[in-house]
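Box 4.2: Ligand-aware structure prediction
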Amino acid sequence: DTEKVSSIPDNAYLESKEAQGRAVGSASSDANQDAPTLAFPSISTSDFQFNHERAADIIVDKVAEFSNKIGNARLVLVDLTHKSKILSLVKAKAAEKNVNTQKFFTHVGDITRLYSTGGLRCNVIANAANWRLKPGGGGVNAAIFNAAGSELENATKEKAKSLSPGNAIVVPLPSSSPLFTREGVTHVIHVLGPNMNPQRPNCLNNDYNKGCNILQEAYAALFEGFVSILG
Ligand code: AR6
């Protein structure tokens, strides 16, 4: 009898604790789904041919630095496929550094369809731009300009005519843009990273001293731009 009496409350307690943990865990992540969120692609690591290991170190360092400056907002590194090398590297390095997983995580999906296809709400997205701030050219730049329509091109022109490596520019997206109506994106931040591709302008000819500095500046400018939107 004594055994029975003591074992029942024990089990009940354990189960309720467990259930509580789950409930609290999911409630807090649900609440966080509405937090301001910046989705960004890995700058310079595809068409601009920047070394993935070095880029991953820089991403994790800058994310760790800014995760203290964004309140309850979130930063999400996005790439198109589960095979993405940069996503794997960043995931591993972020875990090593104990980066807060509520504030930073990786996500596989098209950055122009994060909400409609992935259910991930991101009010701000970053673009790996070109120096002319022009549509086309492939990669994420072409995808974002295509998805956002002429609204983004016009809004971008109003803000700037060109961008130098290491800089970023925040462009508010008109509410008539399909990216706004379908995905809930209110701002696009164009970022120009360092270029290691000899076929593209401003090639750094493998100078990774310069390249790493410029990539650090680019992420700092991007995250500062996001902070400026948070107000
Ligand atoms: N959604 C999410 N990630 C994407 C998407 C997408 N739709 N498309 C590409 N990526 P890149 P860069 C990832 O080449 O290296 C452009 O032509 C991609 O897998 O777009 O900075 C510009 O006009 C990679 O991880 O940018 C510039 O001239 C990341 O986005 C030049 O390329 C960046 O790849 C910039 O080159």
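In the box above, the bound molecule is AR6. Strands lie at 37-41, 74-79, 104-108, 124-128, 168-172, 187-191.
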